[in-house]
Structures are given as structure tokens and as C-alpha cells.
Amino acid sequence: MPFRPGDSKSTDTNIRLATEGLNDQQILDYLRANPDFFQRHATAIAELSLSHESGNAVSLIEHQVAILRDRNMTMRRRMNELLQAARNNDEIFAKTRSLNLALLEVDSWHELNEVLATHVLVDFEADFVCAHLAAADLALALDHIQHHVEALPCLHLQDGNDSACTVLREDELYQLFPMSDHDETGSAAILKLKLQRGSGVLCIGSRSPTRFAKNMDTLFVQYIADILAKVMNRLSA
User: Fold this and answer.
1) Residue 90's pLDDT band (boundaries 50, 70, 90)?
2) How far apart are the C-alpha atoms of 58 and 228, rounded to whole Å?
3) Which of 157, 168, 206, 229 could form a disulfide with 211 if both were Cys (CB 3.0 to 4.6 A apart)?
């Protein structure tokens, strides 16, 4: 049988307690009328402040209750942090999935340029994005795809790694994102593109020097770079 308001004789009292201002005597009367209240709501005890008459000394019971209350607050805070991290990861995964599906539909370098602008700049709220290709037998000069006859720009920033997040000076920002205006500092994620012809990097940048910190997890953006490289290999074939 489904629960209805009339199924519990204490429901009306509970609603009144939750919605009306109460004085101490009303609370006492309610607890006396419901002596099993703390048996039914055992966790509420840890949230109460109960002092134990022991002079200036702190009693063992009071100390234990304080420890339990602190642990309860710490666990709640940690649980909230985990839930927020899970929501953030779900959001990033959904945006990454949308980008990858759009990449699968790309049939030209111009379409690829538009996909990078639409999904990376808009969906991922980045300030800059540019893919740099070198010695790939191409002649490209698009807003977000640049070709270089010889070396890629700022190779030293990768330090030999497949991915790197770093703070950039103004001159470095201009090298990585030549079609944009820049402030004195910014930051970027620089990701190696695994190309069959030549070499390449995908650069995603921000005007904030702290947006792409060195300890940032690059799992999702590296996954994007891997899919992007496959699309580029297909277009170059």
C-alpha cells in the first residue's frame, strides 16, 4: 500500500515542527511525547551540542561526541567533493563525446577547422585553439590549423612528453595562437598528434595563467588529440 499522509499519526506533528517557530517548552513537550525520537533518528545525536557537568575539565563523553561530530562533517564534505567531481567528469565526457562524433563527420580541412572552433572554443570554454602541423606535405593557413615547413613552434615546452600544461609568456602565446590577441601571460595544454606524415601538436589555451596548471589531468584532452590525429591522417591520405 502506498504511503499517504494519514498513514502515520505523527505526520501532522512533524510537519508543524518543520514549518512553525517553536519555543523550548514545545520542543520538550514533543520529545516527552516521543521518547523513541533519538532511536529513530540516531544520527541526529552527533549533530547536537551536549555538555557534561565536569567542572573545567572536558569529559570523555563530550570529547568523543566532538570527535564524532568532526568526523561526520569531514565525511559529508568529502562526499560532496566526490559528487561534484563526478558531475564535472560526466559533463566533460558528454562534451568530449559530442566533439568526437562531430570529428567523425568531417570531410575537409575547412570543416575540421570549424569543428575545432565550435566545440573546443564554445563547448569547452577555451580562449584559443590551434593545431600545428610540420613537414606534412600540406599548405594550410586556417584560423585553427597552421602548417609549418620545418619545426613546430615551442617544442621545448613539451619537454619530450606527449602532453604538457604550462604557463606561457606573451611571445609564446603568439607562436601557438597567431590569429588571436594576447595578454602578457596565459596558459595552454600542448598535446602531441600521432600523425602518419610529419609531426603535429594540438594547443588549447586560456588567458588565465592558472587554467592549465602543470599538475592538471590531461586524460580527456589527450583522448581528443588522438581522435583528431586519426581524422587528420584520413584527410591527408
Assistant:
1) confident
2) 64
3) 206
Cα 200–Cα 201–Cα 205 angle in degrees, nearest 5: 155
3-state SS, the chain, equals CCCCHHHCCCHHHHHHHHHCCCCHHHHHHHHHHCCCHHHHCHHHHHHCCCCCCCCCCCCHHHHHHHHHHHHHHHHHHHHHHHHHHHHHHHHHHHHHHHHHHHHHCCCCHHHHHHHHHHHHHHHCCCCEEEEEEECCCCCCECCCEEEECCCCCCHHHCCCCCEEEEEEEHHHHHHHCCCCCCCCEEEEEEEEECCCCCEEEEEEEECCCCCCCCCCCCHHHHHHHHHHHHHHHHHHC
Report the predicted TM-score, pTM, of the whole model to 2 decimal places: 0.63
Q: Given pLDDT bands bounded at 50, 70 and 90, which one contains residue 41?
A: confident
Domains and CATH numbers, the chain: 5-75 (no CATH), 105-236 (3.30.450.40)
